[in-house]
Amino acid sequence: MVKMTTTKPSIPLRAPYEDSGISVWRTIYVANEWNEIQTHRKTQSPITYGAVLLFMQVIGFEKMASSDPYSAMTSSSLEYQSEESRIFRIALILSIVLITGILQWFLLIVVWERCFEDKLRSFADLCSITNVSVFVLAQANFGYYIHGHCPTGRSDVDMGGLELMLATERSGNAPRRGIMADSDRHTYRMALPAALRKAFDRLHAPLLDVSTSGPSRGQLDSVHYTTLNDVYQTLNRFLMRFISRDNNEGLRFKIVRKRALEDLLDGEFDDTTLEGLFYIDNGNSFGDVLFYGNEIQLFIFDALLFCLVDLLSQNLILDLAVTLIVGKLISILRGDLGRRNVVKKAVIHERFLL
């Protein structure tokens, strides 16, 4: 049994900055959860290509890849057998991959995420409970926003307070989660004015100076810690004022729904030079910057890699091993780069990220 308690420090903290009274552990927790979902996918490569190995070698589908007009999964040594056609073999492999992938996709979207766990929606809900908003810029002036607004207004509560918060929201007596007072939708796509990105880069510039001219990695002194804290607080205040429509630089936005043609073409028709647009989405759009939203590209890459290795080796076990190893390396690389990006952009020191 593990029991966690809170204790008061026996030695008073001596810091060159004033404590804001807001717990940073909620932000660190959300950042770690974000890192965990960065490589979450809709299909699992071991299942997909394990099925290929099962059907091709164990069940005997590879015997149907011959050039004979009549093929079977069983053959006799007394019968004539023509050479195996590589085109037929690749066609069989891709057919199994496609069917297995579609089946996994269907089970995940229709069954698993509805009945058990939807990692992306759970992350968005976590942001609401912890009162931590996530501002993701996929491009210079386009990104995704998760409005982390706790309906009860507080997140730093004990277990009893947390249970009371959830019960209040479950009963329908709590305020809404969304930016709009009458809506629970709290995930948005953003088309932002260029002035906001310029202001963000200006406020973020001192952090770049620290990373280029400061001490080596993991050895920041108190002066640089002060700079990090100042940048963190300044960026937080800037984004909070923008979201609350209280920005003194005249930066504004409005909440709209995308038109059908905009959804079809995956673009925005309205001018965002002076005013940003927040598009209400279905709750999972921020997955576009994760593996989750790029499943088709990853799935095609894995399939082509498997087929390429098979053309060279004609060995399904080697195909499986190479595909899984390359996929794992890509996942590790993506996780590491994503972690570095969180450290750089969210101004959270890497020692706090798991």
UniProtKB/TrEMBL annotation:
Sorted alphabetically, the Gene Ontology cellular component annotations on this record are: MKS complex
Q: Which domain of life, per UniProt?
A: Eukaryota
An example GO biological process term is: cilium assembly
Keywords, in A-Z order = Membrane, Transmembrane, Transmembrane helix
Listed transmembrane segments? 86-111
The name this protein carries in UniProt is: Meckelin
Q: Which organism is it from?
A: Paragonimus heterotremus
